[in-house]
Amino acid sequence: MSRSTTSKSLLTLVEGGIIVAICLVLQWIPNSTGVSSIQFSYGLIPLAIYAIRRGTIPAVIAGGIWGTLDWIRTGGGVTFGPQQIILEYPVAFALAGFVGLGTYQVVKAIKHDKLNRAYGLMLVYFAIGTFAKYLAHFIAGGWFWGTYAPKWANPWVWSLIVNGGSAVANIILAVVLFGILIKKYPKLFLTN
User: Fold this and answer.
1) Where is the chain membrane-spanning (predicted)?
2) Domain 3-25+41-189 has what CATH class?
3) Rounded to an integer, what distance in angstroms lies between the CA atom of residue 64 and that of residue 75?
């Protein structure tokens, strides 16, 4: 391994650690939308920036670490066994790293000063990562949390409403924040 590759790997690792820390700190900000159980996950924004900067694999790893540490931070909360914990914490949060699938396209658009294209691509790949994360939560919601659904609601429909609503709320947040960031600070998404 060359010195520059080692240096880049170390920088990616350190940046990932910082992103995980930022994501955890953002978990302390009140995140309710005021609608029953639909919540913002503010850490998705810095994880998405990291995913575009560093790619899918580092973002998936950082997301999985964030999810694991978030479970520890909550003190374990209500759990239904190891399957539910693994699905809703390391797996769901790791899936959010799929935003990194758009790294090449977004970076290329920014470098060619096509900021509207970069913005559109960011939103598409953010939606992919967000829906992947909330798909895991949806499965856990129907499978494990179904007994908590209102008596009048099918557990799977209720899980779709709650988790789908959270996914949409986070995408709306991304529309606003990425619209500002990509126009004002496009170099934030670049590593060089």
Assistant:
1) 12-29, 89-107, 119-144, 156-182
2) mainly alpha
3) 17
Locate the domains of the chain by residue range: 3-25+41-189
Query: Which tokens belong to 52?
Result: 């575009």
Write down the pTM of the prediction.
Answer: 0.91
Q: Phi and psi for 12 in degrees, rounded to 5?
A: -60, -45
**Helices then strands, each counted (H, E), the chain:** 8, 0
Residue-wise pLDDT for 55-74, tens only, equals 999 999 999 999 999 999 88
Task: Fill in the amino acid letter for 95.
Answer: L
